[in-house]
Design brief:
binds zinc ion, mainly alpha, two-stranded antiparallel sheet
Length: 394
């Protein structure tokens, strides 16, 4: 048992002692000593076990005490939450289950204990039991919180259809706007269907995603992917190019797709001009990468090198410099090449670290772009810009 739990239990005692001293000079000391005697003896026995590093024995004492002490409820809820936060789910479960066997618990406190128990199961990865706990809380004061938690359970289980139903129910009951989340759930269904070549299911899910949010970027990207898989290149392009109307930032995610589509249609020069205009409008290393590769193919190494030089002057980044050195390396020979290789090796290590995406909610960094953060599970918390770009922008 460590300092957090000790703190929780010692603080009330400390307050009591301090309070006694402070009040003794002002009020009746006899009355206060009588109050101190009303503290349950079990409280001190439990504390003693904690001090002797015997948390389970302490828990036995506290659980026994909660059966008889109606005023200790908040303390036990706090104790349970603390155990859960420390990852001691079994102890948190014991605390909350012991509350639920109390016959005199009010309906409000009973619902709260069931909700807390659901969170314990969720933390412990016991998803079926978490689901049962949360689902049993309809028509109680904990209903909205339980529905939100139930939505988390279905997200973890990737039961997207169930998650959508709960989100819609929660929208109705709480008035929250969950359209962005619902659209993401439909996109998950569409992406899975696309991977299995189930075009009809993918199309239906995307239609629902657009109904939830007409301008949803991910739905537009997937609708383009679906069109492309059906051989409809022009239609795919219209979905991807439509993103520009709503979000310049997200064009970075489709730059590669758009360029390939133009090349497929034998319009590579037009594609390059378009992407170049995107780059002028909103600097992006991902767009620069595609423009560089195409410039190299269409206009040769010197033109590609000049492009990098201009971009680097406009937006100085280590990642850009790394590309510039690589570009010069490709055109060099002899000792110059050897020297550039050393510089390139050094630069690459730093550039690699700076080229990750980062979650704006928890700071989790990843090499690939995520719609839902693998760290904190938040949706839409990744900006389609690399760490270094965000530093330059801020
Ligand atoms: Zn995160």
């Amino acid at each position: 048992m460590d300092t957090e739990v000790l703190f929780l239990l010692i603080v009330p005692c400390a307050f009591l002692v301090f309070g006694l001293g402070w009040l003794a000079a002002r009020i009746d000391i006899k009355h206060l000593l009588e109050s101190a005697r009303t503290l349950p003896r079990s409280y001190f026995r439990g504390l003693n076990y904690l001090l002797n590093e015997q948390p389970d024995q302490a828990l036995d004492i506290f659980i026994e005490a909660v059966q008889t002490d109606p005023d200790a409820l908040d303390l036990y809820f706090t104790l349970g939450a603390l155990f859960r936060r420390r990852g001691e789910s079994d102890r948190a479960i014991r605390v909350h289950e012991s509350l639920l066997v109390r016959s005199d618990l009010s309906e409000t406190d009973r619902a709260r204990a069931r909700y807390e128990l659901g969170l314990d199961f969720l933390k412990a990865g016991m998803l079926d039991r978490a689901e049962q706990s949360f689902a049993s809380l309809r028509d109680t004061p904990q209903e909205n919180a339980a529905l939100a938690a139930l939505m988390d359970v279905y997200q973890i289980e990737k039961e997207w259809q169930k998650a959508i139903q709960i989100a819609q129910e929660l929208e109705q009951k709480s008035g929250q706007d969950l359209r962005k989340k619902i659209a993401q759930y439909y996109c998950e269904i569409a992406e899975r269907a696309l991977a299995l070549s189930q075009d009809e299911q993918a199309e239906a899910a995307l239609l629902q995603a657009f109904t939830a949010e007409r301008t949803h970027v991910r739905a537009a990207i997937l609708a383009g992917d679906l069109s492309l898989s059906q051989g409809e290149v022009a239609r795919a392009l219209s979905y991807w190019l439509g993103i520009e109307k709503h979000s310049d930032l997200h064009l970075a995610l489709v730059a590669q797709r758009v360029m390939k589509a133009y090349v497929t249609q034998h319009q590579a020069a037009e594609g390059l001009r378009l992407l170049h205009s995107w780059l002028q409008k909103s600097a992006s290393l991902d767009v620069l990468e595609v423009v560089f590769e195409q410039t190299l193919q269409q206009q040769g190494p010197e033109a590609a090198h000049q492009l990098l030089l201009l971009e680097l002057k406009r937006t100085p980044t280590l990642i850009g410099l790394d590309k510039l050195v690589q570009s010069r390396l490709n055109m060099s020979h002899g000792q110059v090449r050897e020297e550039l290789e050393i510089v390139k090796t050094l630069l690459y290590q730093y550039a690699r670290r700076l080229s990750r995406y980062t979650c704006s909610h928890c700071g989790f960094k990843a090499r690939q772009f995520y719609w839902q953060c693998p760290g904190c599970q938040h949706w839409n918390s990744y900006v389609p810009r690399r760490v270094e770009e965000l530093e330059v922008m801020s």
